[in-house]
Amino acid sequence: MAAFEEIEGKAQELFRSYGYTEIRTPIFESKDLFVRSVGSDTDIVSKEMYVFKDKKGRELTLRPEATASVVRAWLENNLGADGGVSRLFYIGPMFRHERPQAGRYRQFHQLGCEILGAGTIEADVELIDLTMRLLQTLAIDGQLKINHIGGDEDKRRLADAIRSQAAGMIDDFCSDCRDRLDRNALRLLDCKNPKCRTLVEERILPSLPQSDSPEFVQLKKGLTELQIPFLVEPRLVRGLDYYTGTVFEVTSDMLGAQDALLGGGRYDNLVSELGGPSTPAVGFALGLDRLATLLIESDRDYRPHAPFFFVIGLGEAPRIKASRFAQLMRRAFETRTLSEGGAHRRIDLELQGRSLRSALKQADKLESQYAVIIGDEELERGTVVLRDMTGGNQVDVEIGEMSEHSVIRAAIDDGIRELVEARKTGQTVKE
Ligand code: HAM
Q1: Nearest Cα to 150, choosing from 210, 192, 190, 87?
Q2: pTM to 2 decimals?
Q3: Residue 431 has pLDDT above 50, yes or no
Q4: Ligand 1 mean position, distance from CA 37 (Å)
């Protein structure tokens, strides 16, 4: 969860700085939505969807991806009414009934962005820049691969060319490819079977026309101008039918067989195919689980923050006071840190009614910086014992509201050590 939180936190901040707002769509949709968008001949729709019937016999699907849902919601809620560009991001679980293996789960999590209403290549470049910046912010390396698959007519021509090339040697391909030849010939290009890869490399690709469309030239120019390294990958066709034009993926060689960290591309026909006005669009989705794996494998320290204060009450009445003290501390830190943009300090209250010895042991184990101890005597005097857990020095501090605040202020400025030292030597420090 700490890795997820790091990714989500940094992504949200970055996405907002590029003008995105969040959209949340339901995790189930009508099955028909994905049949019409992702495509009935794709693996996702033909093999991997969780489909079930509701009480009225309607076929519903746990969403295998979110682009179709975003477009549906965008249309239903008239989000494009102002005719401007909609930049939307989402984070959430997706479901695909695939064979589970490392990096491939039946419930996984995506974080994605969609730009609706922008038809220029600069939108594609901006989106790719955003993905690469996100990885950079997280100190993760990825290899950007791009391709251009053209519109529906181009895709049909490409599929025909693949079909006629492969026809004479189809028995040499794997059974998946043989199945795909008629329905989804483009996918022969990205089959991972080593034998198919060689056939594609040596016999199919050389005979296919290279994409030299002006959009692809402009895309490469844009990426070069923004100093984003890329590799043109003619095999890259993506597994969803809605793409037109730019397609891209970022892979990591730290990931093993499931090496795609993120993928996306342009889908200029999807909005109209789902019943809306002709609207160009481009987007990507990133596999959160895969990215989290990379973060966990890097040398990050995901241990929880140690407490700043471990507050201990000894006996019934002191324990109530200790609760109050912890409450005031938390409030004071909150006011201070919120107004100054600092991080919250963790304040733990002893909740098991332990003895002093065992409570201090616990504070030590948690690596708390200070223990705050309230016993009957302190209660009577209106003080607390403030114990520096590193050196073991301790002083009495008054707990009137003001002095509580001044203690905290001093603590935040790391002045509490100074305070402890000063009290020891009988000096006064500014409070
Ligand atoms: P996708 O390539 O199917 O694209 O998925 C995007 C990413 O989700 C993959 O690169 C991978 O990291 C992750 N992913 C996919 N399946 C699994 C799985 N079973 N287990 C773990 N991670 C997985 C899409 O979904 C498109 N909607 C992307 C898009 C947005 N295109 C335009 N806009």
Answers
A1: 210
A2: 0.89
A3: no
A4: 15
